[in-house]
Amino acid sequence: DQDGSLSVHGMDLYNLTPDAISRFIGDCISKEPEEVADLKNVVYQKTMGNIFYAMQSMEELVRKNALYYDVMCFDWRWSLGKVALPNFLSDDIVEMIKGKVEELPFEMQRLLVVMSFIPNSLELRMLQMLMSEEGFSMDSAELLSLLIKARNEGMV
Predict the structure, then answer these.
(1) Would the pTM count as exceeding 0.85?
(2) Strand 75-78 to strand 67-70: parallel, antiparallel, or no bridges (unpaired)?
(3) Is 61 in contact with 40 (CB distance < 8 Å)?
């Protein structure tokens, strides 16, 4: 462009290799890639290297306590063997995310539904009015707190 800025018109995204998934998991839980071979095999088998699905799979293992942080040893551990671990992950990413949403408090579920109809951004006051129409009357501080919780859950 004449003003010195660049525009991106497209980007090709490819699935990660098993080695890249191993490094990703190792980075997530502060372990060397070779230490997470069992986890890598399960996650890669389910996700075929799709990074979004791999991230959701790691979250799912934590939610189901198949992967947990051992506070006594200050280390991440997984409690299941090679056979049982795959049973904790859905073959369907939509089902996995649906399960994640269903575990959220009902008011946060409604907030996500309302926000799904809104293009890019809106003011807090407008969101407050829309939530009120859904039967959730809350002040700005309560709504902001709910938005922060939704962000922390990786939902917005």
Answers:
(1) no
(2) antiparallel
(3) no
